[in-house]
From TrEMBL:
InterPro entries registered for this protein in UniProt: Amidohydrolase (IPR017439), Bact_exopeptidase_dim_dom (IPR036264), Peptidase_M20 (IPR002933), Peptidase_M20_dimer (IPR011650)
Signal peptide annotation: none
Residue ranges of domain Peptidase M20 dimerisation in the record: 195-290
Protein name: Amidohydrolase
Domain of life: Bacteria
Pfam families: M20_dimer (PF07687), Peptidase_M20 (PF01546)
PANTHER family named among the record's database cross-references: METALLOPEPTIDASE, PUTATIVE (AFU_ORTHOLOGUE AFUA_6G09600)-RELATED, PEPTIDASE M20 FAMILY MEMBER
Length: 400
């Protein structure tokens, strides 16, 4: 029976592949910033309406849809519920791919593949709707906003997204894995994600009289160098960690020495212990560097999402789903990444799995990293992503 279901999933996935690709291109043309995905949400709901799938709108731009199985139900209280999550926001990136479906919203781009996630999940909804007689219980689909700013999953949870849910599935199209491969390993897959800001107070002066002031820009530049040494010299090379300064702002005019400046950045760590240690290390570097130049530094440190770890049983189920619909040769291996994901907030509450879907293929210019203005994907993997998500849900709801 299991293989018969998988064959149906494959047949449906193949039949709706053109629609999945069309959806991806539509959403790619119309990217929206985190928390303001209004048109994106409207378009998702319009497609759910056309499919006759019930849904409710939550967290302002989020959508929760449900596909209910029609197979004979188990005993009362034994009904299962699985959540399938995709994210829907884009990035403040100016696209330079030259694709015919290039972004029509200036300064915004789906440079992380969330357009693909929406399309793949809508494809999974179509498969699950047409195969509702194969399972019982509820497949709950979460179209989540604001992943890029790490608050969307919390808002969805607050809106009841996980109420009554037994397990959760998520996936990410991924540029570091070859197209057609799926990585579903158990254990830690993504890093702890934290944020910092360093405000520097110096003394402004005329640009021709630097000895009369304290240049906050020079102080900030020294801090950036020192923060790189933190990773290269103060942390064991066997301990994965990244400290990245993403913003450096200072100065008001070209002939005025800056009296103030600020840096913002992100910290990525693998171990819980190092995560606890790094805030004080950054504060020490900032304060001592500022003191050396006669400036003052204030560090604001914000703990973000915890590292993402796959449940062992759920990872095995995901590997089975991939093998069922795509064959064992589609199972790839990936060591994990220091990127972060707010999907980890769901995993704090219920067991689940996060799958990496390879999309790297230089032949179609899909060889640039996530967040690049040249980011592209191999669209041949999209229908496969829909199949795996649907198969995983059906397997769980069938009691496997």
């Amino acid at each position: 029976m299991e293989q018969q279901t998988a064959d149906k999933v494959k047949a449906l996935g193949a039949s709706i592949e053109p629609q999945i690709v069309d959806d991806r291109r539509y959403f790619h043309r119309h990217p929206e910033p985190s928390g303001r995905e209004y048109a994106t949400s409207d378009a998702i709901c319009a497609r759910l309406d056309a499919l006759g799938v019930p849904y409710r709108r939550v967290a302002e731009t989020g959508v929760i849809a449900s596909v209910y199985g029609t197979a004979d139900l188990p005993a009362k209280g034994d009904e299962r519920c699985i959540a399938l999550r995709c994210d829907i926001d884009a990035l403040p990136v100016t696209e330079r791919t030259g694709a015919p479906y290039e972004s029509e919203n200036p300064g915004m781009m789906h440079a992380c593949g969330h357009d693909c996630h929406i399309a793949m999940m809508l494809g999974a909804v179509r498969i699950l709707r047409d195969l509702a007689s194969e399972f019982s219980g509820e497949a709950r689909i979460l179209f989540q906003p604001a992943e890029e700013i790490s608050i969307g999953s919390t808002k969805m949870i607050e809106a009841g997204a996980l109420d009554g849910v037994d397990t959760v599935y998520g996936a990410h199209i991924w540029s570091e894995l070859d197209a057609g491969l799926f990585s579903c390993e158990a254990g830690r897959r993504m890093a702890h994600t934290d944020w910092f800001r360093i405000d520097i107070e110096g003394v402004s002066a005329h640009g021709s009289m630097p000895h009369k002031g304290v240049d906050a820009i020079v102080v900030g530049a020294e801090m950036i160098d020192a923060l790189q040494i933190l990773v290269s010299r103060d942390i064991s090379p066997f301990e994965p960690a990244v400290v990245t300064v993403g913003e450096f702002h200072g100065g008001e005019a070209r002939n005025i020495m800056a009296g103030s400046a600020y840096l913002t950045g992100t910290v990525r760590t693998w171990s819980d212990e190092l995560r606890r240690e790094l805030p004080s290390c950054i504060e020490h570097i900032a304060e001592k560097t500022a003191h050396t130049f006669g400036a003052v530094a204030r560090v604001t440190y914000e703990e973000g999402n915890a590292g993402l770890s796959n449940d062992v049983k759920c990872a095995k189920r995901a590997q089975l789903a991939v093998a069922e619909v795509l064959g064992a040769g589609a199972l790839g291996k990936y060591r994990g990444t220091l990127s972060g994901e707010d999907f980890s907030e769901y995993l704090r509450l219920v067991p689940g799995v996060f799958v990496f879907i390879g999309c790297r293929n230089p032949e179609v210019k899909a060889n640039h990293p996530q967040h690049s203005c040249f980011y592209e994907v191999d669209e041949s993997v999209l229908a496969k992503g829909s199949m795996v998500a649907a198969q995983y849900a059906i397997d769980f709801l069938q009691g496997r």
